[in-house]
Write a structure and sequence with these properties.
By secondary structure, this protein is an all-alpha fold. Helix content is 71%, strand content 0%. The longest helix has 25 residues. It starts with 9 loop residues before the first helix and ends with a helix.
Length: 562
């Protein structure tokens, strides 16, 4: 422990943890292995029923302790229950014991980052095949494990709050194939790591608590993914109605088909007469004029009437405007209906709603893509941080539901539940970030202002050394001059701070930079090691955890956008 705290090696895991021998198995092999273990267990029980003593004394003690002090209800330390999702109520003193073990584990590590790296190494040494599920850089993923576990463990004494936390995390794992065998691998890896590092301090009571709440979290992830899939279908179908996407797709398909038929007709008809050639552009202009007229139509005034040079409206203009007034149009898309309802409900001056509205289509269409959803919420939080007034997120929900009720013909109670569930989860993700961008911007700006030329030179050199050590293949894509490489490193430092200062501009700049990376043929697999190397360099230059976290968060967001 202390300075000697190191993540357990793969060979160590293999020796001291028989439950972690499942190396690089596919999900089918994992399930088959578990079935064999369960069958062997049933055979042992059957043999014991014949009068033979086959259970060791320690196991009997643990079973009795689990019965006396285990969780009340449908959750325990042995079985992953994915059939229900209820509140977890641990036995007397178990939550406090789990929290005490967690504090001891963190206190024995050199830093929170080192503890996260240990958990990361234990998990993926237990099942290397699971690494493909996580696309986030190692340094970022390790801290996510740390923050997620810390959030769950802190809520163990509050069953209602714990359920909300776990549901939110399950919402963010909708696109991952969480299964019972994988939950067991994760559970055993973490428990075995704690058992080795803490030795006698990891009591049977603490072990029972850890296994119980990890089973609860894993089973809840599976439940959320399976049981809430119907809600995702409802959201997708009703959103297509609200945004007229289905109609637009059909219209686009018809236009494409008509274009192909017209092109085929032109090829077969040969040369045309002069009149036909003149008529074509004229017809096209007429169509363009008609479309332009449609675009000018508003919600209540129809088209904008034009006036003559003298400024007086002609009788034709008056008649046209009267006709448009009689044929008053109403909002037909979600954006239009939202703006209309927000004005009617008295929220017209709440400018922050426009920021949410601009990102809402991306949020809805990527609800089952956790990485893209988190990226959009992160960018949205940066834009909303620039708003000076107060932000009340439930107000958006009220306008959203009012708009969707008007646009969806088959709206019912299931739609109400599904959309409320979606927004409540998005709201929790946004609320977790509210207030942080401003503080992180100040911490990062203070760090950069304290760096002298020698420190900047360390960044310029060490970034590439760390990166090439983590991913040697990256050397093939950095063959520029030293001056150019130093420029890239300086630009990287500036971008992490500009992401907080000017998020709108940076989104556009990073999108353009991403296209250039596509043109260069740079594999996205290299982004993770590059981010990890950069974070390691900043960690060498500062002891300010807030500044380091601000740099890590910003650079991770930039890499995901790229």
């Amino acid at each position: 422990f202390g300075s000697r705290f190191q993540p357990p090696s793969r060979s160590l895991l293999f020796v001291w943890s028989p439950s972690l021998v499942r190396q690089a198995m596919s999900i089918e092999e994992e399930e088959a292995q578990l079935e064999v273990e369960e069958t062997n267990g049933e055979d042992v029980i059957a043999d014991g029923a014949d009068g033979e003593e086959v259970v060791e004394g320690d196991e009997v003690v643990e079973d009795e302790l689990a019965e006396e002090l285990g969780a009340t209800g449908t959750y325990n330390a042995k079985v992953v229950n994915d059939e229900v999702f209820e509140e977890l109520r641990l036995g007397p003193g178990i939550a406090e014991e789990v929290q005490s073990v967690w504090r001891s584990f963190l206190g024995g590590a050199e830093s929170r980052e080192a503890a996260g790296e240990a958990i990361y190494a234990a998990l993926f040494d237990a099942a290397p095949s699971l690494q493909s599920l996580f696309k986030t850089p190692r340094a970022i993923m390790a801290m996510r494990f740390m923050n997620g576990l810390n959030q769950i463990i802190s809520s163990l004494t509050d069953p209602k709050g714990l359920k909300v936390v776990v549901e939110t995390l399950g919402f963010q794992h909708l696109d991952l194939e969480v299964t019972i065998p994988r939950v067991i691998i994760f559970r055993d890896a973490i428990v075995d790591l704690l058992q080795v590092e803490l030795a006698t301090r990891f009591t049977p009571k603490a072990k029972d608590g850890w296994m119980t709440f990890l089973n609860y979290v894993g089973g809840s992830y599976i439940y959320v993914r399976v049981k809430f899939s119907e809600r995702l279908k409802i959201i997708s179908a009703s959103w297509a109605q609200a945004t007229k996407k289905a109609v637009d797709e059909v219209a686009a398909a018809e236009e494409a088909k008509e274009g192909e038929e017209a092109q085929a007709g032109e090829e077969g008809s040969g040369s045309r007469s002069g009149e036909e050639q003149v008529a074509g552009p004229a017809a096209g202009k007429g169509t363009d004029a008609a479309q332009a007229g449609k675009k000018k139509k508003g919600w209540f005034g129809g088209s904008k009437s034009s006036s003559n040079k003298g400024g007086e409206a002609t009788s034709g203009d008056v008649a046209a405007s009267e006709g448009d007034f009689r044929n008053t149009s109403v909002p037909t898309t979600y954006d239009e209906m939202f703006m209309f309802n927000s004005a009617v409900m008295g929220f017209g001056n709440h400018i922050w709603m426009n920021e949410v509205l601009a990102s809402f289509d991306t949020i809805v269409t990527n609800v089952s893509n956790s990485y893209r959803l988190q990226e959009e919420c992160d960018v949205l939080s940066l834009r909303m941080a620039k708003y000076k007034g107060s932000i009340n997120l439930p107000e958006y929900k009220a306008v959203m539901l009012a708009s969707l009720r008007s646009l969806c013909k088959d709206w019912g109670s299931q739609h109400e539940v599904a959309w409320s569930w979606l927004w409540e989860n998005v709201e929790r993700m946004l609320r977790a970030l509210m207030g942080k961008p401003a503080a992180q911007e100040r911490a990062l700006a203070a760090l950069y202002s304290s760096l002298d030329e020698s420190a900047l030179m360390v960044i310029r050199k060490e970034v590439y050394q760390k990166f090439f050590a983590l991913a040697p293949a990256g050397q093939d894509f950095f063959k520029q001059s030293t001056t150019r490489l130093y420029f890239i490193a300086d630009k990287l430092v500036a971008m992490t701070l500009d992401m907080y200062k000017e998020p709108k501009r940076m989104v556009e700049d990073i999108s353009a930079l991403g296209l250039r990376h596509v043109g260069y043929g740079i594999p996205t697999d290299l982004f993770g090691p590059f981010v990890t190397g950069c974070v390691q360099v900043i960690r060498m230059l500062t002891d300010d955890d807030a500044a380091e976290e601000a740099f890590r968060w910003s650079l991770n967001l930039i890499s995901r956008m790229l």
